[in-house]
Amino acid sequence: MTTSSVLLRQVRLYGTGEPVDVLIADGVIAEIGRPDAPAGAEVIDGDGQILLPGFVDLHTHLREPGREDAETIETGSAAAALGGYTAVFAMANTDPVADNAVITDYVWRRGQEVGLVDVHPVGAVTVGLAGERLAEMGTMANSAARVRMFSDDGHCVFDPLVMRRALEYSTALGVVVAQHAEDPRLTVGAQAHEGERAARLGYPGWPASAEESIVARDCVLARHAGARLHICHVSAAGTVDVLRWAKELGTAVSAEVTPHHLLLTDERLSTFDPVNKVNPPLRSEADVQRMRQALADGVIDCVATDHAPHAPQDKDCEWAAARPGMLGLQTALSVVVETMVRPGLLDWRGVARVLSERPAQIAGLPDQGRPLAEGEPANLVLVDPDTEWTVQGSELASRARNTPYEGLRLPAVVSATLLRGRITSREGKLV
Ligand SMILES: NC(=O)N[C@@H](CC(=O)O)C(=O)O
Ligand SMILES: [Zn+2]
Ligand SMILES: [Zn+2]
């Protein structure tokens, strides 16, 4: 067996301090300082670039099994590695649904076979995402994939009794339930953020209260169950108030925001381009500002992409018929830099927190989001903060093309990603 080593020359840990050399051997950070390159070591010249723990995405749609025409575990893993990720959580709304251990184990094993990123399957909360009967959470939690997160994402677990039971089981299993917070009675036929723009265009509105009310309800349920709850894709300013209240009461609730809800508003509706259709919808400028502030404050814990690839026939059609969702894995870092680092809301230590450390803690991954220190697993990303790039959907690794950032110039590029000491991407290419 050959053991490979990598020497990262002149990198700045968390973007602070003087550049140092980092030697990686046998999958761990072996030495930080001025180590010599062992014979045969691969040397990467960091040139003062920023070293961070590899990113962890709690919310990815990889579409396998069932819609391999939109994305596969292989193409999605490629997008993840190029985006700086070392672990992603693949949502359960596949076809068939990942509501049993046969599917969740398949997703895990296929991810390991591809080998670019750890693909952790999310198990469904209810059978077939139908919201009626609990799926076999225990079997999934104890199978090869060791499922740690459960979600009916795409659908809200709407029945409060079903949600209560799911939270009670999750506590016993030591897993987390992630809620797609959308009261379906308030969003019947909804097409866009309820507000002036949707009204002018005649689109039925998706009110913020549909999100806020479910988050409030679930925080109450979680507190009484002594359970951990995670809120997917927070989009409305009022949800931040609910989260702050619940956290002050000691509720074990965490929350994510997507890159697109940090950058884009419902102003995009005027384009009529369904690439901008997403669930929850793009909201107002005030909501966007509140998302940024809450992420900086820690009321929102982390950034998750909600990477949602769709085949052209499901997107290139009229607005009402188009599926909701947009790509995110290869643009997340740049959008976080644009919306949080450039305006001074987060430093690079903060970027490590929201893209790596907090998500790893929320999901309970012991080997991700770890400190940059000797002896720690070498799940790492090297970031060049000074280079800008122009997004082109046709150049992204995803099988789908539905990026809302087409033609946009964004800051920061991923120079290299390392998974357990092995280089998975380098200078925008897979290794
Ligand atoms: N976000 C979306 O608009 N779509 C997601 C489902 C979801 O995250 O709710 C999808 O699966 O396409
Ligand atoms: Zn969702
Ligand atoms: Zn989703």
UniProtKB/TrEMBL annotation:
Top class in the EC scheme: hydrolase
Dihydroorotase catalytic domain boundaries: 48-236
Pfam families from the UniProt entry: DHOase
Domain of life according to the entry: Bacteria
Required co-factors: Zn(2+)
Pathway this chain belongs to: Pyrimidine metabolism; UMP biosynthesis via de novo pathway; (S)-dihydroorotate from bicarbonate: step 3/3
Alphabetical list of CDD domains matching this protein: DHOase_IIa (cd01317)
Record-given protein name: Dihydroorotase
Organism from which the protein derives: Saccharomonospora viridis (strain ATCC 15386 / DSM 43017 / JCM 3036 / CCUG 5913 / NBRC 12207 / NCIMB 9602 / P101) (Thermoactinomyces viridis)
